[in-house]
Amino acid sequence: MTVQLPRTAPKEAKRILVVDDEPRMIGFIRMNLELENFQVIEAHNGLEALEMIRTQIPDLVLLDIMMPKLDGYETLRMLREFSTIPVIMLTAKGEEEDIVHGLELGADDYIPKPFSPRELTSRVRAVLRRAEMPTATTEKAVLRIDDRLSVDFNRREVIVNGERIKLRPTEYRLLFHLIENAGWTVPHEQILAKVWGYEYRDEAHYVRLYVNYLREKIEEDPANPKYVLTERGVGYRFVDFRRQEQAGEG
Asked: CB-based contacts of 242: which residues, under 8 Å, 6+ apart?
């Protein structure tokens, strides 16, 4: 007698859009991602990519910078006008100014060419993992920091002076982790591990860059922050708003 074990529904494969004008590069990426059970779709220029993002709704975009018609930077700029889909830039150079420019336009990560299959799949998994938003540990859907700033955990937004501002996934994860440790200094290494993943433990520039992004959105004067404070040489600390509330009640 054979025992029939109950079947579990297969986990739906994540859909990755690869945007590159080089067929050999697309073929290399497709082969390696499909070996890791990703579903791969492709576009050969920026205009085609923007249309596919609207119609195919991929889970992540691998976007080359050097392309005809519309380069990767301009494609990303236009993409961020209507979508927060995770984007990894494929850069021919590893120069910091190219990397920073892509991140400033809204990229979530970058991979300098040439790259190994292991690096490719590791970065893709890490960015997809970051795109899955953490759940708030507070019962309140909206956490009030003070009269000026609140955080809406359901919508992944900050409310600044009554105005709702959408956070990108990495910005939200960074803010979430800092608020969870409000009043405590969080070292750079811990932020990288919790927000980006252990693969990024040597990428300290990510933390500085995204702290700046966050300050631009929540601080009244980003040059003189009152919420996200720098502990030089160590890390960052979110203001201890809970202690301030208790002092006010007392």
From this structure: 182, 183
Quote the CA–CA distance of 199 and 45 in Å, as a whole number: 30
Q: Domain residue spans in the chain? A: 15-131, 142-249
Here the tokens at position 130 are 């970051």
pLDDT at 141: 76
pLDDT of 128-160, one tens digit each?
Answer: 988 776 655 455 678 899 999 999 988 888 999
Q: In what order do the strands lie in the sheet with 235-238?
A: 185-187, 235-238, 228-231
Nearest to 91 by CA among 83, 101, 103, 99: 99
Is domain 15-131 classified as CATH 3.40.120.10? no
Assign 170 to helix, strand or coil: helix
Residue with tokens 């979530």: 108
Q: Could you state, in chain order, the average pLDDT of each consecutive group of 10 residues for the chain (250 residues)? A: 41 89 95 96 95 93 91 93 90 72 87 91 91 60 90 89 89 91 92 84 84 95 96 93 57
Contact of 245 with 226, CB cutoff 8 Å: no
- Please name the CATH architecture into which domain 142-249 falls: Orthogonal Bundle (1.10)
What pTM was estimated for this model as a whole?
Answer: 0.72
**C-alpha span between 168 and 80 (Å, rounded):** 10
Q: Which residues contact 2 (CB under 8 A, 6 or more apart)?
A: none
C-alpha distances in angstroms, 96 versus 9, 50, 126, 249?
44, 26, 21, 48
Task: Give the Cα separation of 197 and 173 in Å (integer).
Answer: 11
